[in-house]
Specification:
This is Acetolactate synthase. The protein is of the alpha+beta class. Helices cover 17% and strands 30% of the residues. The termini are far apart.
Length: 159
C-alpha cells in the first residue's frame, strides 16, 4: 500500500527510510524519497516491487531520491539486487550493466514523465543489500550508472 506523508513523500508500508540528513534534498516542491509506484498506477491488482531484468535476476526498488546537491537535479533510482553479491553472486558488473540500462529506459523514464520531472541526470544503483544513501558499507556490493534522459531513451554517461 502506498501512503503520502505530510511532507509529500510517497512511502510503502515497511519501506526503507528516505535519504539521511545531508543526503538528497527537497527540490521545487517535490519531496525526496519518492517510492516508485509505477506498477501500482498501471495495474493495482498485479502490483509488485520486484522487476525482472535482462540478466535474469530480480531486483527490488527501495527508493527514488531527488538530489539537487550536484548543482542540478539528479534522480536516483536505488534497487536491491542480491545476485550481485561479490562472494556468492551470479551476476557480475558486465551482466548487470544492461540491467541498469533497461531499468533506466523501462522504469525511470516513464516515472519521470508521469511525475513531470526533468532531471539533468538519472542514476541507477544496484546493491546486494539495502545500504542507506550516502553511507559506507565495505561488505556491500554496489553498482552505479549515470544517464542523461533524452526523449524516450537514456544515454549512458561515463562518470
Amino acid at each position: 500500500m502506498i501512503r503520502f506523508s505530510q511532507d509529500r513523500t510517497a512511502r510503502a508500508d515497511g519501506a526503507a527510510p528516505v535519504a539521511p540528513p545531508g543526503g538528497a534534498r527537497q527540490f521545487g516542491g517535490w519531496g525526496c524519497g519518492y517510492l516508485v509506484a509505477l506498477l501500482l498506477t498501471i495495474n493495482p491488482a498485479h502490483a509488485v516491487e520486484v522487476f525482472p531484468v535482462p540478466s535474469g535476476q530480480d531486483v527490488t526498488l527501495t527508493e527514488v531520491l531527488l538530489d539537487s546537491d550536484p548543482g542540478e537535479l539528479w534522480v536516483r533510482f536505488r534497487f536491491v539486487a542480491p545476485a550481485i553479491t561479490r562472494d556468492t553472486g551470479s551476476v557480475s558488473y558486465d551482466l548487470a550493466g544492461p540491467d541498469m540500462d533497461y531499468l533506466c529506459d523501462a522504469l525511470a523514464l516513464p516515472y519521470l514523465t508521469s511525475h513531470e520531472i526533468t532531471p539533468a541526470r538519472v542514476v541507477i544503483s544496484l546493491m546486494d543489500r539495502p545500504v542507506a544513501f550516502g553511507a559506507q558499507d565495505a561488505d556491500a556490493t554496489q553498482f552505479f550508472e549515470s544517464y542523461t534522459p533524452d526523449g524516450n531513451r537514456c544515454i549512458w554517461e561515463e562518470f
